[in-house]
Structures are given as C-alpha cells and as structure tokens.
Amino acid sequence: MQLKFYKKTPLLLLPVLLCMGFRSNHISRETGANPLADTIRQKGITLIVEDRSEGMDNLQKQALIHTFFTNYSRFIKTFNSKATRTILFKIDSGYTGVAYADAKLGMVCYGADYMKKHPKDVDVVTHEVMHIIQNYPSGPGWVTEGIADYVRHVYGVNNAATGWALRSPRPGESYTNGYGTAARLFAWIELRVKKGIVKKLDAAMRSGTYTNDFWVKETGKDIDLLWKDYINKPEL
Ligand SMILES: [Zn+2]
Fold it and tell me: I need a surface site. Which of 1, 52, 87, 153 has the fewest CB within 10 A?
C-alpha cells in the first residue's frame, strides 16, 4: 500500500527576498538518459530532480536542492538512520496541490503552479522530506502531519521570511487537526512537560507500536488532558 501525505497551503506567505548561499562546489551533476532530470550527490545521498513543469526558475530549484541537503542528512541523524539515501523530486505541472510525499517510493511531488507562485516557500521541502524519513506503517494521520510541521518549525530554513509560524490554538480546535495545531502542542509538550518526546513519538510511530497509551507512559497524562492543560496556558 502506498501512503501519501498531503500538505496544507500555509495561510501567511509574504513576498520577502530569499538569500541563500548555494555551495555548488560540493555538488556533482550528471545528465542521464532522462533530459528532464538532474542527479545530485552529496555525502552519500542522491537527489534526482525531475522538472516536468514549463521549467522552474533555476535559482528556485537550487534553493529547494539546498534545503533538501541541509535538512535530510540532519533528519537521518536525528530520526531514522535507515531512511532511504535516494530521493526523487518531481516538479509536476499536472499536480494542482502544494506537494505530497510517497515514503515507499522515496518520492516528493511538488505542484509546479504552487511553487511558481510561492518561490520562497522552500520549507515545503522540509515538511515533505520528513515524510520520507517517517515512513510509518500506519497512522494516526494527525500525529504524522503534526510531526512533519513540528520538524518544519524546528529545522525550517526560511520560515520567517515566508511568514510561516506555529500559532496559538483557536477556540474549538482539536489536536486531531494535525499539521500546525498538533505541531504546536508537541512544541509545548517538549518545552513544558517532557523534552525529547517528539523523537520517541516518531520512533513509536515507525515501529508500529504507537497507541493512545504512549502519552500516559511518557507524561502520566492522556492526550486529551495534555491538550486541556495546553489550551489553558499555551505560551511557548
Ligand atoms: Zn504532510
């Protein structure tokens, strides 16, 4: 079964210039049989970039590649040393969403239209490649997406410039919304209740051992009680 994970469109995107130093001397580039694909290798990791759009701006493409190599090796080290070392990025004008990852295939597909309109939103890469690292056998989806946005919050390289940030919970909201809602809860638990819990949560999800009891075992409180404590005093 192929697991697919979808990313929501960030609410705030500000047009701010992106300044990124791209160290091209560390990259070897090849053009294989597929004229649409670039293969880039760094430190034992191979990224194949297949541009099936009308042609992404080269500086933007380099920024996506840079973000990938910055964060993917960090994620391997921090979360999953067994994660695949070969990843395919597809930039697809036929896909109208933001992006999705297929962990089983080691592939991330980016919507060409979204990327064209949001050239500074390079941390779409950060969120999506975390799904490759996750490679969970099953859900719950709110944990999966919550961790991916938590990781974007911690490791994002250009969040501030694009106006992306975790926000305080809104009345009636539930952690089961996943994404930023769950990510901010995780950040609060890390800070106020138990440091290092996201790493343990990620490991439990990957080994298929996650249940609701995880929270009681780790914190002495179930997830609903943690949420209640959090929304009563959500400061980070
Ligand atoms: Zn996602």
Answer: 1
